[in-house]
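Quick one: Unconventional myosin-Vb from Calypte anna, structure tokens please.
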Amino acid sequence: LLRLPEAPPHGPRREHEEELEALKNQVDELQEEMEKQHQAFLQTLQLSPEVQVEFGLQQEITRLTNENLDLKELLEKLEKNERKLKKQLKIYMKRVQDFEASQAPAPAERRWHERSMQAAVQRKEKDFQGMLEYHKEDEPLLIRNLIT
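--- reply ---
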């Protein structure tokens, strides 16, 4: 066996060794769990078909119950996050309103701004004169009204 010089205790080699050890422990735990499941499976095979079906149903019910609990937990977290985000949104909306109120132009300026906006809207409407949007099923009624 070839030994390398020891790295400092907090170096990358030490971190790698710790991670490797954790992974080995995880593999051992999974192998133990797999062995338990294998033994349970062998025992199940020795049971009558009716009992096997019942056992399978019980296991599926247990699995679905655990999954349901996990989903409920996730839903609670998401609802909590939603409430938090709604509160933040209200705070930001209030800040924007306060900022807009502080930046609002004087009344005379505001009236001039509103008039210029109206003029701009009227120009936009002129760009679209003669165009018509309609649903396909309304086409016969539209043609009849145009002819009339």
